[in-house]
Amino acid sequence: MTDTKTALERLREDARHDDPASRPAHVEWRGLLTAGLGLLAFSICLFLVWQTASSLLIIFAGVLFAAFLDAAARTLAPVLPLNRVWRLTLVVLLLAAALTLGFVWGASKLPEQTRLLLKVMDEQVDVVQDHLLSFGVDLLGPDGGRNLATWLFPDHNSLFSHAQMILGGASSFLVNALVILFLGLLFAFDPAGHRDSLLLLVKPSYRPRARGVLNEMGLVLRLWFMGQVVRIVLMTLCTWVALYLVGLPGPFVLGLQAGLSNFVPYLGPLVAAVPIALVAMPFGVSVLAWAVIIYTIIQSVEGYVIGPLIQRQAVEIPPAWTLVTIVLLGALFGVMGLALAMPLVAIGRTAVLRFYVEDFLGDEVNATARDGP
């Protein structure tokens, strides 16, 4: 009886301690202050991220380029048993040589093909506009007969200001490209050093876990980027050959834009189909049908067979969430947001699974962090 009474008294005492009304006032205020400061810090971080989003995207593009270089160097390891730095140097030299040769070849071929394609598309836009006008639909507005150059520069008196705008945009693009290039090189040649310097911000007892998650993010980026390169090359070659056999002008440019469009899932291939259809229209309905059907078949095989086989280890996200992310990032950050949406989703998924689902919620996910460099 005494033991039972003692147990009941202990329960009542615990209940009194758990009662918020019985807690000291300074404990209540301390909890509220901690929560308020945490919310304020989170809000400040969100504000800073929003204000520096463009710069952060450029930095992330540098990280992505470093992941590509690292993946290429790792691929050469079984063939060239050299030090990682030498393999990475060889990759950089080969990439520079390939870009130089491509630029030299493209400088003599691409402008002519591009001008031809723009002329054909401009004419077909007028044809489409005329057909739509017969149904009372004015697609291009009252000045629908203008050519593409007039669309770009509607006011000839302000041509100089447009030229300044174009030069400014080109210089900004070159600066961003150089920043991405040098960041990628720096990150690629010393990934462990940059990773460990970032881990200094983490509590020492949690650093091994954070290191493992960062290593897994690096692996995801490598797999995703190498998969994208393979998909772009395959799509470019297949579309190039197919459109060449169909007889369309500028098949390489059309194939290249079709391949690069795969960088933006779902929306990119749809946009890439428009130039192909416009270029095929002057050659008749049969050529247009063949071009569209062949492109659809190639895109379907690539999207539903080759793509999942290549990317199955990198990104496993439902298509709806992927499309939502692409639309949101594109609307918020423009072209950079569109181009970097998928890798951001990939590493974001990894971070959520490891830090939130596993560590915070205590749930288990069937994936483990991989070792990095």
Secondary structure topology:
Layout: H1 2-18, H2 25-51, H3 53-76, H4 84-134, H5 148-152, H6 159-189, H7 191-199, H8 207-246, H9 251-260, H10 267-280, H11 285-311, H12 319-360
Summarize the structure.
The chain has 373 residues and is an all-alpha fold. Helices cover 80% and strands 0% of the residues. It has 12 helices and no strands.
Question: What can you see in these coordinates?
Answer:
By secondary structure, the chain is mainly alpha-helical. It has one domain (52-360). It has twelve helices and no strands. Helix 3 (53-76) crosses helix 12 (319-360) and helix 8 packs antiparallel against helix 11. The N and C termini lie far apart (66 Å). The model is unreliable at 1-5, 151-156, 158-163 and 367-372 (pLDDT under 50).
Distance between the termini: 66 Å
Oligomer: single chain
How many helices? The count is 12
How much β-strand is present in the residues?
Answer: under 5%
**Which class do the helix and strand fractions yield?**
mainly alpha
**Major pleated sheet:** none
Summary keywords:
12 helices, disordered N terminus, single chain, disordered C terminus, 373 residues, mainly alpha
